[in-house]
Amino acid sequence: MAERTVIPARHKAYITPVPQGIDPLVAAALPAAALTSFFPLTGSAGLRQDETVLINGATGVSGKLAIQVARLLGAGLIIGTGRDKAGLQQIKQLGADAVIDLTQTDLQIQDEFAQQAGKGYDIVLDFLWGHPTELLLKTLVPRKAGFATHTTRFVQIGQSAGANITLPAEALRTSGLELTGVGRIAPEVIPAALGQVWHWSAENKLTMDIEKIPLADIASAWQQKTSGKRLVIVP
User: Fold this and answer.
1) Does the pLDDT value for residue 73 go beyond 80?
2) In sequence order, which residues have a C-beta less than 8 Å from that of residue 189 and are 6 or more positions away?
3) DSSP string for 60-72
4) Average pLDDT of 193-197?
5) Residue 6 domain-assigned?
6) Residue 114's domain is classified under what CATH number?
7) Is residue 15 domain-resident?
8) pLDDT greater than 80 at residue 100
9) Percent of the chain with pLDDT over 70
10) 3-class DSSP state for residue 215?
11) Is residue 109 packed enough to be buried (19+ CB in 10 Å), middle (13-18) or exposed (0-12)?
12) Mean per-residue pLDDT for 54-83?
């Protein structure tokens, strides 16, 4: 960590100046977290107006921003999941239409996944993986025999609930599930994406919890556990 650094010339395409009026703390913390949902929603998942979006793991930093970004991009129904009850209340204020508490029993969680889906989830942004995702995928399998009647574009982003899952064959065979990662991000699309994030930030349409930590306290900050906020190290 340093006050100044050298950026190799080959990374020039990824560099975008911070516009005037943007708080340096916001500039350091917000864009990268916001782009983890912006790129999937505008790229690999291809969000269309009024579609239903599930944010699996919405009470973390990136999940909270995903709720806001999905709303700004025109999502219809937005559902967020999480284990932190205060965080679940917060994402309602940020734009979630409904929340699913992952501290419930497996059966209760599956029932809520099915109930909140309505006619089906169009897009799932998954920041969790692990057991919660296994429960979600089970609910996507139709109970009646036949071909899939609904397509769910599922984008795997994070693994805070576990690095591995058990994936039954039927979860792919009959569910209409399209499972992808974030995908390749071409350097040429980054400036425009960042420009949109800067624009939303300037209009106070994106918010996140940030804690400022002096560089002199980096040793203790490195061990500090955070929930739903970003630590920004300052000189």
Assistant:
1) yes
2) 39, 43
3) SHHHHHHHHHHHH
4) 94
5) no
6) 3.40.50.720
7) no
8) yes
9) 100
10) helix
11) buried
12) 98
| Chain-centre distance for alpha carbon 224 | 22
Contact 109, 132 (CB under 8 A): yes
Q: Which residues pair with 123 in a beta bridge?
A: 53, 153
Q: Beta-carbon neighbour count of residue 204 at 10 Å?
A: 7
Q: State pLDDT tens for residues 18-44.
A: 889 899 999 999 999 999 999 999 998
Both structure tokens of 170: 């039927």
Look at residue 216 and tell me if it is in a domain.
no
Q: Is the pLDDT of residue 144 over 80?
A: no
Rounded CA gap, 199 and 214, in Å? 28
Residue 66 lies in a domain: yes
Domain span at 51: 20-181
Quote the tokens at residue 223: 């061990």
Closest C-alpha among 29, 97, 93, 87 to residue 58: 87
Q: What domain count does the chain have?
A: 1
> Virtual CA dihedral for 66, 71, 72, 73, nearest 10 degrees?
90
Residues paired with 79 in a beta bridge: 54, 98
0.90 exceeded by the pTM?
yes
Number of Cβ atoms within 10 Å of the Cβ of 219:
7
